[in-house]
Amino acid sequence: MTSHQHPPEKMMFQLTLRRRGISDQAVLRTMEEVPRELFVDEADRDGAYRDSALPIACGQTISQPFVVAYMTEQLQLQKQHRVLEIGTGSGYQAAVLSRLAGQVLTVERYRKLADTARARLEKLGCHNVEVMLGDGLNLPPNIGPFDRIIVTAAMEQIPENLVERLEVGGILIAPVGPHQGVQTLTRLTRTEAGIERKELVEVRFVPALPGVAREL
């Protein structure tokens, strides 16, 4: 196999994203360029490009590729944007964001996940990403504002103090609904007149929990 050829699973990965409606060429190119296999556990690498979520450390998951691409597309990212991500996990979503935005701050409550993601992102040259160990539901007041906010864990409702960190013209996307079961991916847009809310698709995410984890 020559260096410019793709293995069949990666070709199917791209085809699946297109078939499911991802049309932003910058997002598709980024999904192709970011090596997903580096963000999953070694035992799951053979399935890294399947369109399914996979388990990672600390009882968390890496979202299925379609959900990552869909949420990224909904953010309508531009190179000058400053992005906040709540829930670093493996660092895969942050790696995707880093190629499309100017700066990314990603917050993780598990030290083990934060440290591992930081090392992966540094190795990949994602130098515009800062990984912070912290409570994504109770951020310090001096963080922000942001052009875009993405939450990668289920929230029963979106905290007002998170919405307040959005610039005018900013977009926030989060899975909203019960911690156990199905959530609705919800997009908020801050306009001069206030907040516009749109419900998008049904998803399943692990719960967004308060505080920094005492262990791990």
TrEMBL record:
Catalytic activity: [protein]-L-isoaspartate + S-adenosyl-L-methionine = [protein]-L-isoaspartate alpha-methyl ester + S-adenosyl-L-homocysteine
GO annotations of cellular component type: cytoplasm
Active site (record annotation): S63
Broad EC category: transferase
Principal subcellular localization: cytoplasm
Subcellular location: Cytoplasm
Keywords: Cytoplasm, Methyltransferase, S-adenosyl-L-methionine, Transferase
Keyword Transferase applies: yes
InterPro entries attached to this UniProt entry: PCMT (IPR000682), rRNA_Ade_methylase_Trfase_N (IPR020598), SAM-dependent_MTases_sf (IPR029063)
Domain Ribosomal RNA adenine methylase transferase N-terminal: 67-192
Similarity annotation: Belongs to the methyltransferase superfamily. L-isoaspartyl/D-aspartyl protein methyltransferase family.
HAMAP family: PIMT
Protein name per Swiss-Prot or TrEMBL: Protein-L-isoaspartate O-methyltransferase
Organism ancestry: Bacteria, Pseudomonadati, Pseudomonadota, Alphaproteobacteria, Hyphomicrobiales
